[in-house]
Amino acid sequence: MLRPGHPRLLLLPDVLERIKRSIEQDRTAQTYRDALVRSGQRILAEPPVERILVGPRLLAMSRKALERVYTLALLFTLDGDQRWAERAVQEMRAAAAFSDWNPSHFLDVAEMSHALAIGYDWLFDALSEDDRATIKTALVEKGLRPAEQAYRQKAWWAENAFNWNNVCNGGIATAALAVADEAPVLARFLLVRAITGLPKALASYAPDGAWAEGPGYWSYATRYTVLALAALESALGTDFGLSTLPGLAETGVFRLQSTGPTGLFFNFADAGERSGDEPSLFWLARRYDNPLLAWGAREAAAGRSSAGDLLWYDSRGSKDELARVGLDAWYKGAHLAFFRSAWVDPKALYAGFKGGDNKANHSHLDLGTFVFDALGQRWALDLGPDDYDLPAYFGGRRWTYYRLRTEGHNTLTFDGQSQDPRAAAPIVAFRSASAGGFAIADLTAAYAPSGARRVRRGIALIDGRSRLLVQDEVEASRPVDVVWAMHTKAVVAANGDRAALVQGGVNLEARLMSPTGARFAVEPVAIPPPQRPAPGVRKLVVRLPEKVVTARIVVLLTPLPAGPAATVARGLPRVVPLDRWAKDGPAR
Predict the structure, then answer these.
(1) Angle at 273 between CA 434 and CA 255, to 5 degrees
(2) Domain range enclosing 444
(3) Whether the model pTM is above 0.90
């Protein structure tokens, strides 16, 4: 089945011709090529990678080598300039000379193997016999042999449900295909293991394409999913049906839904808020014939394109195709909901809402959290991850860090305690209509150790999608101190049941509609070292006058016209119990 000769990974002759035609005929593709040239020129002046670990990881060096090899090898393939090939060889020989590729943190091996596999395959005819031997030997001895040992020792990542599986199996499968004719027995063993292991992670896209590790790890996992599927198809003529698994055809839209009109992610779990270049969307657009994803890929690549964007470039699609997506989305598998007032208006309202599962990989104790964009600003934000090299960040001290604890998110705390790390919070109701949409999550399990009998949170865009309503209903077996919280970079002035937020020259009003006697307060976010600080972030909180057994907390967030004298012209809606939202709507 193996395609003879090289290249056999991704960049087949018809793909190369398609890229060249796009550069000749399409202005956007031309800008990608120009950006690639600038990147290549920068790389020419930089020294090659060194074996420098950051914490327990060589990953930064693996990724640097990967970005450089893709850039230089594609440039050489496009224009034949020997400078690109010579610098790529220099990079690969430097990596090949490392004592190892840090198999104790196997992502490092997988990504470095990916880098050298692409360089070996795409530049094969330009390599000297000595260079070929050096690179192939490194691939086998520092990439494929450690992978063989890991598989035989039943490495945990080989059949894991999340990103390590996609990356390690995808990177190793690609490297095995690069040398499959020269190391057939080893390559066959590795490919069988990778192809049988990948479905365990691909199942996490089901049923609807969401990714429970958050949008940042969606990007990481999906790039390697796409790599594996594309490499199998190009080298063997089949991906063994992997691309037909449930959720993959829909997952590109999840990436679009996860990004607000500010360009920021709803960055739950260990995800940063900055969205970025996403070439996998181009591949997904082609594989599943979805031009909308090609439009989304071009939007993501604007001003920050990479080699992958040229490799899979697709000129189809426009913002007009967003009409068939709708303004709201419910992802049942990951317990997520998204609402917006418009798709392409940078000042639109946007709310990302998470039920979720605290047991998911990279999760925080954040069930019920939300983010909120309006008027071109992010008003309710997620602080994202902390430094992975903090002591036991992925171990016994994980829940001691502010960004990961419940108090570090836009949700409730009971008696100052974090949520149960074993809890899940399904979204139990969802509705989308032209005038607005809502979702309700059952948070009971999250607070059961603190005495909760029933806790639910509803999020709704109301009044023609012009305001956000956040409503919590609490029943407990004993009196508990309930605190509502929202992190923001806005300047906040709280006055009783009102709070005025100012940011970027625009305004937001928060109104506390229930319960009587509760008041807004503003608290600093002072995170002690060695954790990363959060400069400019403060926390708008609702504190109840006393401990409660039952409570309904209702907060209305209203974006206001620009100017310091902005006021709310509309009256307040009447509060409707969550049980009646489905029948009567969230506000009347």
Answers:
(1) 50
(2) 328-561
(3) yes
